[in-house]
Amino acid sequence: MSKTPPLLQIKNLRRLMLGPVSLDVDVGDCVCITGSSGTGKSQLLRALADLDPHDGQVWLGSRACSAMPPDEWRAAVGLLPPESGWWLPGVLEHFHNGMPVPLDRVGLTTAILDKPVTQLSSGERQRLALLRLLANRPRVLLLDEPTANLDPENTRRIEAVVTAYRREHDAAVIWISHDSEQVKRIANRHLELIDGELQEQEMEWAPWLH
Fold first, then answer.
1. Residue 163 and residue 157: Cα distance in Å, rounded?
2. How far is CA 130 from CA 53, 60, 133, 196, in A?
């Protein structure tokens, strides 16, 4: 029986000091990427989202990034940066596609939808930006430290929401994290970015955390 093709294929991607990077990501994968600050982790995600110029090729299934309109690619391969942009004054104005999951699952209430963006805390913005991304129903989530501004309780909520989305929508996740315990909880693969190249790390499973 032939193996199912990868959901995301990366071949010889290069960007500034990054690369060459080649990686296959399967449906259902949660690939955690760690590495020292300044090694190019965010550069990698921005290149995969086709936001920065780069060499090499990236495919979503059988479709090459170079053969897809940029807006279509970025809807399917969705990036959550550390600081998301908010181009309209009110929270609700950013959710034309509806709310992908109930707000209480990320520790928020419906009252937040009536707030102006300027009144949101950094943690509230981070959680709402994830929901806004999920509302686009991406096949691949590129998450750049999505829980960096959150307390432990809300961190676990976000981990649960992303895990459920990945399983329910046959999606894949590439998640940048500096938290070794988080990697144990959420990832089935752990890669470290060293000298511009991804190196596979042995997984340290923590079954009591699942």
1. 10
2. 25, 21, 5, 27
Closest CA to 135 of 98, 164, 166: 98
Is 204 within a domain? no
- The DSSP element (H or E) to which 77 belongs, if any, is strand 77-80
pTM score, whole prediction: 0.93
What pLDDT is attached to residue 210?
A: 43
The pLDDT value recorded for residue 96 is 87
**Positions of the chain with pLDDT lower than 70, given as ranges:** 1-3, 205-210
Give the residue numbers spanning the domain of 135.
8-199
Q: Tell me how many domains the chain contains.
A: 1
Q: What's the rounded Cα separation, in Å, for the pair 194 and 189?
A: 16
Strand 18-25: give its sheet, edge to edge: 18-25, 8-15, 55-60, 63-64
* Length, in residues, of the chain: 210
Residue 162 CA to residue 186 CA, distance in Å, equals 9
Q: Is residue 205 part of a domain?
A: no
**Can you give the CATH number for the domain in which 44 is found?**
3.40.50.300
- Looking only at the bridges linking them, the beta strands covering 63-64 and 55-60 are antiparallel
Q: What is the pLDDT of residue 48?
A: 96
Question: How far apart are alpha carbons 6 and 172 in whole angstroms?
Answer: 10
